[in-house]
Amino acid sequence: MAPNFRKLHPVGAQLPQECVSLMSPSFLSDQFDTMYNVPGYRKWFLQQDLQPAYEFHRRFLQHLQERENGRRWILKAPTHMFGLPALLAIYPDALFLQTHRAPLEAITSVSSLITILRRVFSDAADPVEIGTEAIRYWSTTLTKFLGERDRLAPERIFDLSYVELRRDPIGAVRRIYKHFGWVLSPRAENRMREVLAKQPPDRHGFHRYATAQFGLRPEHEQEFFAEYCERFSVGSPVSTRPVQLTSALHQSRFVRDGLG
């Protein structure tokens, strides 16, 4: 239905996946807003308490780990930036890793993803409208998240440059483990290296996009993300020429111990 999707977002039974799908059965998920242009749902969703969605999320994880007895869950979805109070109500001891990327690059990337998904279900997916919606939605969400995360103790959150993660993934992992007081065993590091070695950059093909496709301009970065860019030293002029797609958005990951 969306032949280009796997070029943007690798999917497989043995691959990591965003946990936003675990929230969709509660009908409280921005996955629906990503796939369908239904303004009424978006307006309703933004007014909801997401605690029931996280309750279902937790129950789902309990089922998944019933026979595994996992020590720790590593979970990822941009949605977590929108629902931090509800997340903490269900996972009060969660730890957080936030990767930081130039906002306009991230918004262009997510706009491309949404356009591809919506075209599966509609002939009227407008990339410029999608880009306008995306930059307003995610700038508001990011501002809300930063205010909420400032309530957390510093040791519960770690900030990582997306550029650093791409340049030296093993070094980045070592820094994460050190921050949270974990031990990175030689066996775990070797397995990470094996996975990286098996994933050349062109494994899933390339998807190319340009900011102009979505009505986005370099000045939008300062207009919507000036405070964020200054705080985390990210952001730069983005060319309107096509560039390679590498990820969806500055991701907010959270880490949770195995659930009883």
What's the total count of β strands?
6
Strand order within the widest beta sheet: 1-6-2-3
Count of helical stretches = 11
Helix content range: 40-55%
Structural class: alpha+beta
Distance between the termini: 39 Å
Largest sheet: 4 strands, mixed
Let me know the average pLDDT.
86
What amount of the residues lies in strands? 5-15%
Return Rg in Å: 18 Å
pLDDT < 50 runs, ≥5 residues: 238-250
Question: How would you spell out the order of helices and strands?
Answer: HHHHEHEHHEHHHEHEE
Per the principal axes of the C-alpha atoms, what is the gross shape? Answer: globular
Topology (SSEs and partners):
Blueprint: H1 5-8, H2 30-35, H3 39-45, H4 51-64, E1 72-76, H5 84-90, E2 95-100, H6 103-121, H7 127-149, E3 157-161, H8 162-167, H9 169-180, H10 186-197, E4 208-209, H11 219-232, E5 243-244, E6 252-257
Parallel strand pairs: 2-3
Antiparallel strand pairs: 1-6, 2-6, 4-5
Helix pairs in contact: 4-5, 6-7, 7-11
Provide a descriptive summary of the structure in words.
The structure is a single chain. The protein is of the alpha+beta class and about 260 residues long. Helices cover about 50% and strands about 10% of the residues. The chain contains eleven helices and six strands. The chain has helices spanning about 5-10, 30-35, 40-45, 50-65, 85-90, 105-120, 125-150, 160-165, 170-180, 185-195, 220-230; strands at about 70-75, 95-100, 155-160, 210, 245, 250-255. The strands form two sheets. A four-stranded mixed sheet has the order 1-6-2-3. It has a two-stranded antiparallel ribbon with strand order 4-5. Helix 4 (about 50-65) crosses helix 5, helix 6 (about 105-120) crosses helix 7 (about 125-150) and helix 7 (about 125-150) runs parallel beside helix 11. The longest helix has 23 residues, at about 125-150. It is globular, with a radius of gyration of 18 Å. The N and C termini lie far apart (about 40 Å).
